[in-house]
Amino acid sequence: MFENLAYGFLIALKPTNLIYAVIGVFLGTIVGVLPGIGPPTTIALLLPLTYGIELTPAIIMLAGIFYGAMYGGSTTSILVNLPGEAASVVTTFDGYQMAKQGRAGAALAIAAIGSFVAGTISVVGLTALSQPLSEVALRFGPPEYFGLTLLGLTLVSYLASGSMVRGLLMALLGLFLGLIGMDPVQGTRRFTFGILELNDGLDFVPITMGLFGIGEVLYNLAVKEEFAEVLKATIDWGRNLREVLQTKWAILRGTLVGFFVGILPGGGAIVSSLLSYAVEKRVARDPSRFGKGAPEGVAGPESANNAAATSSMIPLLLLGVPGNASTALILAALLIHGVRPGPFLLQDHPDLFWGVVASMYIGNVLLLVMNLPLVNVFVQLLRIPYRFLAVLIVLLSIVGSYSVNNSIFDVWILLLFGILGFLFRILKFDVGPLIIAFVLGPIVELSLRQSLIMSRGSLGIFLIRPAAAIFLLAAVVILMTQVIQAFWRVLVKAPMHQRG
Amino acid sequence: MSAVRVAGIGFGIFGVFVGVGALRLGVGSWHNPGAGFFPLWIGGGMVVLGTLLVLSRQEGDRLQSGISGGRLIFAVFLLMGYALLLERLGFLLTTLLFISLWLRSIEQSSVGEILFMAVASTAVIYGVFVRWLQVPLPLGVLGR
User: Fold this and answer.
1) What element of type H or E holds A471?
2) A228 in the Ramachandran plot: left (φ > 0), alpha (ψ -120 to 50) or beta?
3) Residue range A194-210: average pLDDT?
4) Which of B14, B16, B24, B56 to mutate to test the interface with A (most CBs of A within 10 A)?
5) Residue A428 and which of A22, A138, A401, B115 are 20 to 30 A apart at CA?
6) What 3-state class would DSSP assign to A6?
7) Beta bridge partners of B33
8) Helix or strand or coil: residue A190?
9) Given phi > 0 = left and psi -120 to 50 = alpha, else beta, which region is A138?
10) Phi, psi of B52 (to 5 degrees)
11) How many beta carbons lie within 10 A of that of residue A459, not counting itself?
12) What would the DSSP string read from start to end of A92-125?
């Protein structure tokens, strides 16, 4: 393990890779600070740029954006009461209250050091688990992959914002979009309507840029949100570090919660921060302090979201199953370069795997060094008018989509998905499950059809293989619970409500 | 009828369309699934879930208030105009025109801001895509 890690550091410390790691965490911090642009939007906007870069530095940069945003997101949550990205919403509960009481420096120090500790412990976990997990995953065949991807999609839909019915509908739409083009088994054209450009399927870049980039800009045009006053932070190292030490157990609890939630498909940073806040409130001697400036309310969730961002790289890299929209986009970048992540990644591309892991150790140190001293500088970014950013996002989306195939058809696809992205946003349909299903769709279908061909049409193949059976059983239990609950509301509660 | 119910109907209709398309492709059999096998399940799922969405009580599902429709529709038309003109006028002219119209009509920016943004963002995008990534963006009338 240590040899591999040392090899990873050799890769990560190459000047080019180091520069891309710095660019990644710097951009991540900026998008974390700026409301209206989240990590998936930024990764989507930068996808076309990765064509011109080698694979390892490209993934190092995209991963840096993802976990760097977790640091940046806490800054505006604490100083402006405005979460820069969704995983930092929970931090506003107590972080902003601490800032209003003149303890902004302490809140920021807790968030930054908690994030650093959690991020680093999580990378250690990732390093330790990678080899044994890839050995288990090597034994997976089509039935296990079908079970795993189906469980992933179910969990992603279950944990999506809004209801599970909406999450599942988005996942189904993503699966449908993923099967447009040639049928992988028989070579038949499916749902192409005679359009030549659709023969190879829909491209990932215009869809994601449309849903995230254009959709976000249209939403912000339609719904204007006012920014609150920016509070000033003064870092007093001695006093602030004492407060950080007082929250050490909350940081460790948050790290554990985040690490294990992040491994689950659909887990990710948002769920882990909410769960960690609930844990902190439950173990607190005086839960009434929460929401009024309790340091544990910042330490737990901030540690959890960073740990989860790191551990969500495990299912992505070792199983090829992304757990959230950001990792789905990183998967797309890998696919663009012709690399399908999975258990063979460690053997076939050790430089990529260990280079990315080692860059995460370095990235965490960079973020800690960069974030605390520069906190008041980053907050000044909020003064950039959104209208300027909007124009840049629109242009990057259009030119980025055009550059995929030098085709105006992709620009029309971008616009279509931009409008859909806006509609989904106002109707509260989470686009995360759509993106993940779009990427996983071909694997789900192929593994299902291969399993059925292997078993000569017997569904028993999913029951006699233990791992596949466990994955499918878990997916069915979650689905059935939700469907029964939905039918109960429709058939029993609603008529009672009307009578009452 | 709430917008979410309309979305439910939309998904239901789309599910029927996917299902019919799947049947036309041929679903095959359990031991040899055809090209329409998987899409049939997707279409069926959309119909069931779309129906559930229509029938369920929509608590707290009202659209956000304060949505500015005029700016939104104008922005969509501008984006469509950009797509229509990009290959005819070329990247440079279309982008300059687009930024000027966007900032002037949608954001009511000053002339100075418009000039700065038009020149700066066109230069940045041109530098990154054309110079660095060697993407051949359309030259349009400037290339003739």
Assistant:
1) helix A466-488
2) beta
3) 88
4) B56
5) A401
6) helix
7) B28
8) strand
9) alpha
10) -60, -40
11) 11
12) HHHHHHHHHTT-HHHHHHHHHHHHHHHHHHHHHH
- Please count the residues of chain B: 144
Q: How many CB atoms lie within 10 A of CB A484?
A: 10
The partner residue sitting opposite B25, judged by closest CB among A190, A391, A412, is A190
Residue A380 one-letter amino acid: Q
- In chain B, positions 44-103, which contact chain A (CB-CB < 8 Å)? 45-46, 49-50, 52-53, 55-57, 61, 63-64, 66-69, 71-72, 75-76, 79-80, 82-83, 86-87, 91, 95, 98-99, 102-103
Contact in structure between A221 and A389 (CB atoms under 8 Å): no
CA distance A201 to A178: 7
Q: Three-class SS of residue B12?
A: helix
Task: Please check whether residue A305 is in contact with residue A83, taking contact to mean a CB–CB distance below 8 angstroms.
Answer: no
* Contact by Cβ (8 Å): B69, A222: yes
Distance between CA atoms of residues A488 and A112, nearest Å: 45
- Look up residue B33 and give its DSSP letter: B
Cα(B140)–Cα(A299) distance, rounded to whole angstroms?
Answer: 55
CA A419 from centre of chain:
22
Tokens read off for A363? 């990235």
Structure tokens at A401: 């989509």
- Is A12 within 8 Å of A358 (Cβ atoms)? yes
Q: Let me know if A115 is exposed, middle or buried by CB neighbors in 10 A (0-12, 13-18, 19+).
A: buried
Which amino acid, one-letter code, is at A417?
F
> How do residues A165-199 score in pLDDT, each as one tens digit?
888 999 999 999 999 998 888 888 999 988 988 98
pLDDT digits (tens, 9 = 90+) for A98-116: 888 888 888 888 988 898 8
Which residues of chain B carry a pLDDT beneath 70? 1, 57-68, 143-144
Q: What is the token pair recorded at B78?
A: 């501008």
Q: Can you tell me the distance from the alpha carbon of A199 to that of A265, in angstroms, rounded to the nearest whole number? A: 30
